[in-house]
Write a structure and sequence with these properties.
heterodimer; A: about 200 residues; mainly alpha; Serine Threonine Protein Phosphatase 5, Tetratricopeptide repeat; B: Rossmann fold; 6 helices; about 45% helix; globular; EC 2.7.1.121 (chain A)
């Protein structure tokens, strides 16, 4: 593996495109169990990221993660702003002197920092029907070099049968069952795009 | 030392209304109330950089009491701690009380005392005292 700033920016550019392409789908997922804005919110964030990168041309991986973090924090509006923002801020710190990511283990460890950021900010546990239910298995599989597309998809789908215990969906209790979590879905896009760049 | 209040909600109308409600009271002229509900463009949501911009522009004598209601408003008042420096952290206080009742009580109390514990106690009392 040889991920430099170029590949990392390619990853996040693909992620941005995927979010914009799936904007309506993400908002539709959010409609029955949230306020129906996840797609629009995320799209505002990634568009702000693209503008920021075009303007400042970050020179390393850390600065690239920071650009995404700040775009998410300042433009998303909903809870995914501080959650993705915290994840990428932790990853900004974890890559401070990293020029190139050379192994699955190293990449997994960097993502693990992001996962910690989300857990701390959101006070979330596994099975709460959140983005964590994708991040956690993905990080573990990445660390041992076993992450694949199907695994990401399975993790995302697993949120369908869960009862929401965080965010607005938690007020719905059992009625949240049967709906895939929107944050898990946008996170699945993040990792599917990462796999495209890694492979 | 002065205390300013930061009001954070998903809705600007909520914090605008609360600011109006507070300013009807005879609060200290030194106390500024910031209505930070909604996103920068007035949409539904909240934005941590609206909080940090105010803290970063302040002098070292100014303390901030942050209040939030739900969801990302709460996440964002906490998030601000990750973006400000250690000196600023000493002047930024999260007050975990119901937004409207708590901020209202705190705004009046800061005109009477500088003691943070007293201010927090008064803000928390609003929960205990409700519906006799």
């Amino acid at each position: 593996m040889n991920l430099t700033v170029t590949e990392v920016q390619a990853w996040l550019a693909k992620f941005s495109t995927a979010i914009v392409e799936n904007k309506d789908y993400l908002s539709d997922l959010d409609t029955p169990i949230g306020d129906g804005d996840h797609g629009n919110n995320m799209a505002r964030g990634v568009i702000a990221y693209e503008e920021s990168v075009a303007k400042t041309t970050p020179k390393d991986i850390s600065a690239t993660f920071q650009a995404l973090s700040m775009a998410m924090l300042s433009k998303v509006g909903g809870a995914s702003g501080p959650l993705y923002g915290s994840a990428f801020m932790k990853m900004t710190k974890a890559t401070k002197s990293v020029e190139t990511i050379t192994s699955y283990e190293q990449l997994g460890d960097i993502l693990a920092e992001g996962l910690e950021g989300i857990k701390t900010r959101g006070k979330v546990e596994l099975q709460d029907k959140t983005m964590i239910d994708v991040w956690d298995p993905v990080v573990k599989a990445m660390q041992v070099g076993e992450l694949d597309y199907d695994m990401v998809e399975t993790a995302k789908e697993s949120t369908k049968d869960m009862v929401a215990r965080k965010g607005r969906a938690s007020y719905l209790g059992e009625r949240s069952v049967g709906h895939i979590d929107p944050g898990a879905t946008s996170s699945a896009l993040l990792f599917k795009m990462l796999l495209e760049v890694v492979h | 030392m002065k205390y300013n209040l930061l009001l954070v909600s998903h809705s600007q109308k909520v914090t605008d209304g609360l600011k109006e409600l507070i300013e009807e009271m005879n609060i200290s002229e030194d106390t500024e109330i910031y209505s930070l509900g909604g996103t920068r463009d007035g949409g539904i949501g909240s934005d941590v950089t609206r909080i940090t911009d105010i803290i970063e522009a302040s002098d070292s004598d100014t303390h901030f009491l942050a209040f939030a209601d739900l969801g990302s408003a709460v996440l964002n008042v906490e998030m601000a701690l990750d973006l400000i420096n250690d000196e600023q952290k000493q002047r930024y206080h999260l007050i975990d009380v119901p937004l409207i009742e708590g901020a209202f009580a705190a705004a009046i109390t800061v005109g009477v005392t500088d003691d943070l514990n007293t201010i927090i106690t008064e803000a928390k009392k609003t929960v205990a005292d409700k519906w006799y």
